Amino acid sequence: MENVNRQIISILVNNQPGVLSRIAGLFSRRGYNIDGLTVCATEDERYSRMTITVTATPNTIRQIVAQLEKQEDVVKVMGFDGKEVAFRELLLIKIAVDGATRSQIVDLCALFGAKAIDVNPDNMMLELTGSTDKVDNFVKTLSSYEILEIARTGGAALERGGTIMAKTI
Fold first, then answer.
1. What b/e sequence results for 110-140 when a residue is b if at least 16 CB atoms lie within 10 Å of its CB, and e otherwise?
2. CB burial class (10 A; 0-12, 13-18, 19+) of residue 93?
3. ∠ CA(25), CA(51), CA(79), 5° rounding?
4. What is the pTM of this model?
5. What's the rounded Cα separation, in Å, for the pair 61 and 33?
6. Of 10, 14, 37, 7, which is closest to residue 25 (Cα–Cα)?
7. Is the pLDDT of residue 81 over 90?
């Protein structure tokens, strides 16, 4: 039995309406689950970058990449398996606070490198950017407090060093 791994796939696509829907549809039609998805403009207005995080066997990941490469609007697909990658997620989390817990939350923010971006008498909104593990650990640490809301992005990833995806087309 093959191991299941978390894989980051970066896709350069034509910046056209409907591309996101077609790529997401490819995953759903084949029964692949998307753990995280981020889409953004690139330095070249002709293209958008999709960063998709999946958990699957190496064979399934190869199938996903092969299917993505066949898509009309896909310009380039890069799997980051084994490469040096800068990968970050963004977390916004709203916590109920009172006078006694506010300073504890501020101390946890300092420990994790989070920022308070909205402070009210009965709650605080915090922002944290980091690896999936860091974000998971921060949420787990805060779980002993009353979490009111969470919003979390998919990740954004770029290969470290001199490789530039658009220049490898």
1. eebebeeeeeeeebbbbebebebebbeebee
2. buried
3. 100
4. 0.82
5. 11
6. 37
7. no
